[in-house]
Structures
1.
Amino acid sequence: MSPVLGKDLLDLESLSAEQLRLILDTAEPFKAISERAIKKVPVLRGKTIVNLFYENSTRTRTSFEFAEKRLSADTVNIAVAASSIAKGETLVDTARNLEAMRIDMVVIRHPASGAPRFLAQRIESNVVNAGDGTHEHPTQGLLDLLTLRDKCGRLEGLKVCIVGDVMHSRVARSNIWGLRKLGAEVAVCGPRSLLPAAIESLGVHHVFARVEQAIEWADALNVLRLQLERMQAGYIPSLREYNRVFGVSRARLERAPKDLVILHPGPINRGVEIDSDVADGPHSVILDQVTNGVAVRMAVLYLLAGGRPELATAAQGGDSR
Amino acid sequence: MTVRPILLRGGRVLDPSRGLDVAAGDVYLEGGVVRHAGARIGDPADAEVIDVSGKVVSPGFVDVHCHLREPGREDVETIATGARAAAAGGFTAVCAMPNTDPVTDNQAAVGFVKRQGVEAKAARVYPIGAITLGQKGERLAEFGEMIQAGAVAVSDDGKPVVSSQMMRTALEYARTFGIPVADHCEDPTLAHGGAMNEGVVSTRLGLKGIPSEAEEIMAIRDILLARRTGGHVHLCHMSTRGSVELIRWGKDRGIRVTAEVCPHHLSLTEEAVGDYDTNAKMNPPLRTADDVAALQEAVRDGTIDCVATDHAPHHYDEKEREFADAPNGIVGLETALAVVHTWLVAPGILSLAQLIDKMSCTPARLFGLAGGSLAPGAIGDVTVFDPAERWTVDVAAFRTKGRNSPYQGQVLTGRVHLTLVDGRVVHRLGA
């Protein structure tokens, strides 16, 4: 049980501003570990972590695995086909079996919103949500916060617009909670058919129908991935039109009154929600997000294992800066 | 064996079917029927005298909508356990929905439900037959034969009748026999994949929502088809303010539309889902406080005719899973009186007489069932309850096999003490 975070990290909605700042501050010293020749500290030596993935996710799973290994934890990856729900073992049985093997933490990715909380209520181990359905993706939210804080020097008063398929996005929800709690102004922009009906209830400051308005208003854009399935399900008529109306292009950015920081949770659909010259351009922080993802996840794992934030610098060794 | 006569002595005798309200009176049952209900009488010879002073004696409650799961899912409920749960909740008659496995869509299946109900020797069980074979929405079931075997209404509940033409035909054909067509109002294209009400909570939890319009579009379609056909459409488990307004519109025009509302939709909102509590998952879903207020007012002013439980037991394993994958429905027979009393009578929205009217007299009349009255000669179906008694809901003590209740652990007021069917005690609190 972490004195700072409690047992689990399930969402950003239930964290306080103080807890969020603490995670981000703890992540700072962990960044250095990944820059060293020997990328390993013994902080989680002897701890066993299971990465339980009910959905494919190369990026998030790899990022967690690096974070775990660089902290010297023993890790096991389990990929469960989501289609086995009907015939296979229930989630709670799977978790109880894992726990019977005396594990310490479960990092879970699941297509059903609320699955990590369901699990956390039923097992003793720490549970980290690595993305649940269309609910939250808290470590993604944290790495976005860290990247924005690095790039802009502050979050207080920063204007961030989330662009795209907010309805189906767990990244959007975690971003909205995290940014608001740390004093940023948050807007969303996208076709109304891809915004939740009650989006205003999440406390966003603006809902923009035109991406041009978002670009004029914002300091930073977080551009969401548009899943091909959304077109097949009839939420939008075509990817082509989506790009023409909502795509973040250089031409649109050049008309902005200031340079915008561009984030994207990946993987990118080049030429759909974001044009290649923007993704690869000077204001894109997409790869910084990936780098920060490992540091933030190290911080979360460290804190959940009972690590004290003020000792994080000492924990990473401090001898090779 | 002849049944010994029973005298229920000294209770408040309340029978809204006759405008009867006697503060401390007697009800005398003999030969399976009510012989007297009203002022105090002397002790009849050979009668068992039961002191019910301080309690209310009313016509037995009638539930026109429950799921007893037999045949097919006897592991979660049987007609016998369901009928006993009904009796424990003060119900002397329940109507069993036909979404069993196999579907109750023919005279043999209806006869089976009827027989199992008789065997249970608890609350009466009236079968409801399916509207279409297999509830597939394709071919009309044999209403005439099912009615002969004991069916009192038809419904494809659990599923809507998607085809408007099929619904039209069902209303016309049912009119021939004078039975209601009970519809589960849901536009399947709007509701598709939804797990809870579409709104603030679904947005926060990242769950796909079911908009109010999924219900309302089908409600108005049914009302318009009832106007076209002259058939009696009964709208199941209404959950939104919009539906209430549409029913009011239909009734104002003399259309034969009646409607029911469940205790949970009169008492809980979408907030009860909390952090993915599957015991707050049902279809239609819990809505907003505004919808609850509209439904409460609609029961009071008669726009909604009656209360029905939509009792839907599930195995605990089935509810013990990810929210989107958990089945819809909660048990309701054993908490219905207390929920309606706690949320509507205690705050003064309904009188006790209105509660009895909505839970007994009116549902019996709508579905053409015996009961719902203490008039001399009426069947001896009687409920005795203490409206003031506070008790804590404990699902482990339920007669139903189901344990899925959002009221677990809550303190409610209003408790059933005695239920009599055919002048015989079928439930006694503590027995």
2.
Amino acid sequence: MIRLSFGDRVMTVIIYMLLTLLAFMTFYPFWNALVISFNSGMDTALGGVTFWPRAWTLENYGIVFNDARLLNAFFISIARTAVGTATSILLTAVFAYGLSKKELMGRKFYMVLCIITMYFSGGLIPSFLLIRELGLMNSFWVFIVPSLVSVWNMIIFRTFFQGLPAGLEESAKIDGSGNWGVFFRIVIPLSGPVIATLSLFTAVYHWNDWFGPSIYISSEGLLPIQTMLKQILNSNIVSDQLAQLDSAAQGQLAKMRTVTSKSLSMATMMVATIPIVLVYPFVQKYFVKGVLIGSLKE
Amino acid sequence: MPQLTTGKPLKMKPQSKSAFVRFMKQIDIQLMVLPALLLVIVFSYIPMYGVLMAFQDYSIFKGFLASPWTGFKHFEMFFESPDFYGVMRNTIVISLLKFFIGFPAPILLALMLNEVKNMMFKRVVQTVSYLPHFMSWVIVAGLVMSMLSTDNGSVNILLEQMNFIEEPINFLSLPELFWSILVSTGVWKEIGFGSIVYLAAIAGIDPSMYEAAAMDGASRFKQIFLITLPSIMPVVIIFMILAIGNLLNAGFEDILLLAVNPVLRDVSDVIDTYVYRVGIQNSRYSYATAVGLFKAVISVGLLTMANYIARRAGSSLW
């Protein structure tokens, strides 16, 4: 063991301190939001709620889970994430498998077409007008169809497929399987990790997308939770909820308004965060690999 | 245009069948590719073609084909508009701030993490610092608003307890603080995730170099500058080129969500949010497309220039 010099020991201590500070500063906002969501809104408004709830309550969540609009938005998000991820991964994998075949006519041309889209795009307005021309406004399919093919994922899939041993496919072909058969019976079962990685990334994208719906969807029944949450944070909806609550609580003034817009939006935020936190351990297991495959291609 | 088969080493007979026959013979793999390719063409190439409406007076009633051509009218309108100066200044200042602070930050974190020998501690820091990357900007903006709010905002509580301030400050309504808040939030969200590539590059360094340096009496601090940094330089340069190409992407979702207060308009409006505002919200489609195209042209120029400089320095993107 080489002994550390005094200067190095000082450096090590400073690094540990800085990293602890970073971890704290990253974790604390989530924790504080969680604490506020379990604290009575009236009490939070007095200030000073930081590490632990002072007036514990489930009331905030009670209101969130009784709000039909929020529940609906939550289910829209789940449906979008499930359908969007499954269809996009399947189509992109098939696409990548086709492009991994050396005998494919036009292969180079197809690849160039794809790669150009990674560097150039039409931008916001032409895409917006296209979606409108296609009649996808205010339709669930606007969540699914435009993002069905991901060129980025295709390239990662393709690199992976090209690395599979050719012998496996050949033996399956001797047994009489066509290319589609080989794809579903041999290639897919061998691609577990790469499918898991890309599915997680795609699912996170779908769950988190709030901007698309904010311009393409105007009917409230189709808004996903993130877009709804954005409106809540900008306080359109909360005052509404509170007004309903006020009228419901008329007569029992004592019980009125222990929730505030802040406590409600924190509770909603936690509901929108939970799915990500739940899949995070799996994401973490795979994403380092995913990032590295991605950066090889850059 | 379909190409002929890529050359196989042994060709038993000359290509005699017509392209069509060969195409039909491999129709099964063509059918794997063509539907997806159609989607790429519809959702990527049609909008690219649609950019031409920047040179039109596009009207939704006439459609793209019948709208009159106007040359550079919308570009001139933008250059002469009263918004031009503010939008350009905000775009440039915010992107430079993000570049000079947001780009080195993950490298610094990776270097620090590399000095940590306690694996447990390292894993905890990594796990926590990667998390915000996976959160939507809505959540992140919500957390920032909550931290900075006057209603039980933790930052105000802290400052009050340390007696720096008497009254809670409404941070997100102060134009002079907006850039700092925006850039810090961006660093907060991406620093951990951005460090992954650099950590991987560091992991690839030959350990015997450190041993040799230690023999020669180089301190750990010196080893960072003499071994670690030079070894990851190629990766740093590639990411720097990409960052320069993205320089005009000053921000979009983050600005839309953090600059809710209208008093921030003067410091928060950048090209992308301006395109959104005049294009989607005010329906000035041709004008907004022209502004977006102006930005795209500068971005391509920046990327080419950065790559040219890097190539002369010995590494390149393509």
